[in-house]
Specification:
homodimer, 244 residues, alpha+beta, disordered N terminus, DNA-binding
Chain lengths: 244, 244
DNA sequence: CGCCTTCTTGAGATGACTCAATGGTGGTGG
DNA sequence: CCACCACCATTGAGTCATCTCAAGAAGGCG
């Protein structure tokens, strides 16, 4: 990981904070990192020194069982905040791995603690962000627990398709209704709690049904209505600006 | 639902706030409710006017699919905060139903919004609480996605057993290592994403293995070590006081 | 006493899994 | 420019965990 001074100001965490109130960030250190695809940003159990904002690239949050089984908790897109958890001083309760090359802004955990205790705007932003993440996590719990393979995958694809539109416009092509999609079938499997082989067969069904095209790291939505219906997906769960 | 003035002060949400700083709550309306077992506190899609703190009783958070399938997101115990979500002004994204008779303290949503924007202590408390809830939700996602019936149920039982110890001491009997447990098998099923019938068979296995006793709404942990091992349960995920 | 809810158990069905082999594609190095 | 390798996707065939359907049994309650 290389490290330089972080040049970017408009981080998602602070997106709701007027620019003229950002002066307090001057007091805190921050620095930019890059990591290669397939590298771990941190591992469950590790004592990470930082929290991060993802500037570019795709990453996954996951947990691993002793038997090696992995559950992907979330796909992280640019603007997402990584490494925050209730116990900021303790070991990480999940791992994060880069899917593509990623650039991140690192922030010392101790500083975040101090800021949270002193900065109302930041704390309020965090409340909103966490609540949104929670809503998504609950959607995944619903999908994993009570949807079959096809429904769960349909939901996941729709979710990512829309999140890319909102968080990473340059990877979205409105004319073809397609997005960059670097997620392997094995990762889809670990996200929805099924087997890679079964993901493969289910994707074939989705292709046969002319709902999607998924080749060369690109996902095209051919029949959005039916796909959304199948997955039980409703865009409103991703509201960019909740009316807190 | 009957409504009277709320007489209680030491709500969990404010547990970290020194009592002498609680004066600001005087400015906000709050009132106590009671609801019967099996009554809904609010339904997904409804525009609830309040958020709540659960004083006594058990409740469940859940989501429902069009086909009627239900996924329980969380079991709520005394001290838990209900009804908070990213979009405080929009419709609820989940439902809450009382398992036993419950008493709650209701707080107008608009007031919470205002408080969040003006009260640093409250915002910080909310950040911590949400982060803890998130950790639990992720544990459930892991269980539902990547554990088998036996492991997932073992985890759930251990989790609730410990949460009762921490949040509702009078329902915990240390001499017999047992807790009050009003959750039906069908609810366990909806919490871990399997069928009631299969829950029943799995519980039988757990009983045969002398790991638990579960009768008459009471859960006894007979072999905590093996049960925790089976479920992959680690108490530390429930830390009462994260070191924010 | 009868009804309702919850628990229990059996038997057959099936969605998803495992194991295993094949094929494609991109990168790398000789 | 080709050979090789690593990684991912694909497909077949048999197995298994979990589901579905169905019927009783065991309380609790009006």
């Amino acid at each position: 990981m290389q490290c330089v001074e972080c040049p970017v100001r408009e981080r998602a965490l602070f997106s709701g904070v007027p620019l003229d109130r950002l002066s307090w960030t001057q007091n805190y250190r921050e620095s930019q990192y890059e990591i290669e695809a397939k590298q771990e940003l941190y591992l469950e159990g590790a004592h990470s020194q930082f929290v991060y904002t993802l500037f570019s690239g795709w990453a996954i949050f996951y947990k691993t069982l002793e038997n090696g089984n992995r559950q992907i908790l979330r796909v992280a897109l640019p603007g997402d905040f990584l490494g925050f958890q209730a116990d900021l001083s303790g070991p990480m309760n999940h791992s994060v791995k880069a899917v593509t090359m990623c650039t991140l802004c690192a922030f010392p955990r101790g500083d975040l603690k101090a800021m949270l205790k002193s900065n109302l705007e930041l704390a309020t932003q965090m409340v909103i962000m966490n609540a949104k993440d929670m809503a998504l996590c609950q959607q995944h719990l619903l999908a994993t627990g009570r949807k079959n393979a096809m429904e769960a995958i349909a939901f996941l694809l729709m979710e990512i398709y829309y999140r890319v539109q909102m968080q990473n416009k340059n990877e979205y092509d409105p004319t073809t209704k397609s997005v960059f999609f670097p997620i392997a079938q094995e990762e889809i499997a670990d996200a929805v709690g099924i087997t890679p082989v079964h993901v493969n067969r289910t994707l074939r069904e989705l292709r046969n049904g002319k709902l999607i095209r998924l080749t060369d790291r690109r996902l095209t939505i051919l029949n959005e209505d039916v796909l959304a219906e199948t997955g039980g997906f409703d865009v409103s769960i991703l509201q960019k600006h909740p009316l807190l």
